[in-house]
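Quick question about two entries, pasted in order.
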Amino acid sequence: MVALLTLAAFINYVDRGNLATAGPLIQNQLSLSHTELGVLLAAFFWSYAPAQLPAGWLAERFDPRRVLAAGLAIWGAATALTGLGTGFIVLLALRLVLGLGESVMYPASFKLLAAEASEEERGRANGFLASGQLLGPAVGTLAGGLLMAWWGWRVVFVLFGFASLLWLWPWLTTPRSASQRWTPAAREAPDIPSTGMILRRRELWGSCLAQFCGTYTLYLVLSWLPVYLVNTHGFSMAQMAPIGAGVYALSAGTSVLTGWASDRWVRGGAATNRVRKSGLIAGLTVMTACLIACAQSSSVGSLLALAGCGIGIGIWTPALFATVQTLAGPHATGRWMGIQNCLGNLAGMTAPLVTGMVVDRTGHFDFAFGIAAALAVVGILTVAFFIRRVEPIDWPAPVNGQLLPALPPQG
């Protein structure tokens, strides 16, 4: 299951990142401004973020495996059709459809992992999931960039869209474990805990803000790295592809390593709170330092700083994933992640568009990197002081159909 979810995350990020890789070509071919390209890059999140709320509900009310399969079918088709797009409006509409399809990825995946993975396995499981998410842009940038340089961007979108749909066969035919079996009776069960209970948790809002702050940097890099390398530093498409892929591959490798290290730390007796918070704060700290360096360095220094950003993202991402599953538990993770991904991915709406507007106004990326660094600092303060403890929440339990308040923790 972890292997197939990792592959799905990989496909997810290849398909959502293809437009950024093709950005320089589409911008020239369709005569788009930086602001218009920023609109296309951000439009994905206009549907993706709000659709997280119904996606979280669907993942808990219906079979999450089937929900994920339906979403992938939609986003694979939207990717293929993008290659046939003839103008700004068509591309905009297909980006919105892509966002709807991809919205189920993390609520459904987290629902499955929260039920399957113990606390001592959670770091590795989420490290692999994060590596798929980060290898997607690496392979998409490298293979996609080179293929686009040879064949053009339209052929690559059609090819990648149809390749995505091939994932459905192993996913729908793989046997399930007992905890993954779903029955229609689950649809009629009451929500325990209720959505209102989830919304009243301070930990939810702290986790949402922390995700927004870190995700802003992630989507600035995912959306604008190709254009930054080509337009600011003068790299060709063929040169840009391996550089961009290297940043993402470094990030993916870091996520696997830090996921493994966090599990080992937990098995050694460290408190979950200490392990998860350390990962979140360390990742955001590295991002802050490297974003500042990007804004002040020469070409070589900027490339090294971008590599450092990749390391920071690789530390932060699996820690964030594991934090959600630890806090919410198996009965609330789908809806919790739906809410958090909705609010956290507002960064996906703002980072591409704000960056495009800033570059159009200033002529460079320095101030855009500064905005991301400031938000990373806010994320550090949120994790340190707003999220009290990262540990399983003791939700109220149903007794004879009635909800009883949870007992206070002992000791």
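Here is the second entry:
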Amino acid sequence: MATVPCFHVDAFTARAFRGNPAAVCLLTASRPTRWMQAVAAEMNLSETAFVRPLARGFSLRWFTPKVEVDLCGHATLAAAHVLWQEGIAPKHAELGFETRSGRLSAVRTRSAIELDFPALAARPCKAPSGLAQALGATPRAVAMSRHDLLVELASERAVRELQPDLARLRRLRVRGVITTACARRRWDFVSRFFAPAVGVDEDPVTGSAHSVLAPYWSERLGKTSMLGYQASPRGGEVAVKLRGDRVALGGEALTVVRGELVVR
């Protein structure tokens, strides 16, 4: 009976059971999309990554329990961690991933893994009808990125205390809603991310959201290197460095489960 190596990795954290958990499946050959979606539903994590070797680098696809997505940071971080950990890639090699968002890369630094992602602009827009009621908070500013709605709130406290109406958020015609505010402590900004429309009520730490948050806060704070904190119950830090139309996302990861998926 065929098996596929499968890992449960906590990303954007150095502590087990914090940060954002992702499943990583190491394939040796392509598998049907329907099968990958079924595996992701079975894993029931915010994202499951499927990695397959290519002549140059790796193919990487991401699935929530409901849909395939175009961009995911924490599952990319988890995939890079597994490839180095398992000796599939040399420890100091740069990894290249072919994805639905083009070629992405990952490198190891002294203290973290650094991902090279596209910087995604968020353009000011009118708040969708019912947004304030869905969030239970009044937006200070609203903008739309390639995938998600970005909502700036009045304070870090407002972000941390949000208790949104997920049923109402699910009806918005966006992948997800990034809520954010300037921070007063060790971080430059805080955020939370809600995506009930794609099967993720609240994502613990969202790398792709920081592809939007980096240029957004860079313009407002006049900085290109910042530290963000995603204030979900699990929580996690993401270091961001804006480099023109790209952004470096930095974080740590650790494996909490190693096993095999039986292929039927």
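Reply: The domain at 3-108+251-262 is CATH 3.10.310.10 (Diaminopimelate Epimerase; Chain A, domain 1). Helices lie at 33-43, 73-85, 131-135, 156-160, 166-170, 207-221. Hope that helps.
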